[in-house]
From TrEMBL:
Protein name stated in the entry: ImmA/IrrE family metallo-endopeptidase
Organism for this UniProt entry: Azospirillum humicireducens
Keywords from the named record: Plasmid
Record flagged with keyword Calcium: no
Pfam families: Peptidase_M78
IrrE N-terminal-like domain segment(s): 27-150
InterPro entries xref list: IrrE_HExxH, Rad_response_metalloprotease
Top-rank taxon: Bacteria
């Protein structure tokens, strides 16, 4: 998972405090974020509209923590896989669903890195935030996401 120095700089700019403002990060990358009605099994999509406009749509019926992870996941697809959108395999859209392939795992891993960067997790624990639930609340992610991030059973 290699990101360009420019993309790394944009990420680092948004990872100075927690919770990471993932919507602002998306906008700084030139991606519009919209809450919309999607099927229950679809958390979000990343779509290229026209030639240079990108839109993330998140399922408005999902919890706020799920929406935040979805935006981070779709940002990860943008950073890692945007050159693959429109190649005939994806019909110009990545769907965040129950799929579990290599690209989905890569996007999940980077989404966790975006929302819960290790330096900030260490800072939080050194500052007295110790339980998984407290960390999840501080980072505005689900307890399950924080358990996975910390390598703990869910």
């Amino acid at each position: 998972m290699m990101l360009s120095p420019d993309m790394m700089a944009v990420l680092k700019k948004h990872q100075k405090s927690y919770p990471v403002k993932v919507g602002t990060l998306a906008r700084d990358l030139g991606i519009e974020v919209k809450e919309t009605d999607l099927p229950d099994n679809v958390s979000g999509t990343l779509t290229r509209e026209d030639t240079d406009k990108w839109v993330i749509r998140v399922n408005r019926r999902h919890s706020k923590t799920r929406q935040r992870f979805t935006v981070a996941h779709e940002v990860a697809h943008f950073l890692l896989h945007r050159n693959q959108i429109g190649n005939g395999l994806t019909d110009d859209t990545f769907y965040r669903s129950d799929l579990s392939d290599t690209r989905e795992r890569e996007a999940n891993r980077l989404a966790a890195d975006i929302l819960m960067p290790w330096p900030l997790v260490r800072l939080a624990t050194e500052g007295g935030v110790h339980s998984v639930e407290e960390l999840a609340e501080a980072f505005d992610v689900s307890s399950a996401a924080m358990h996975i991030r910390l390598g703990l059973p869910t």
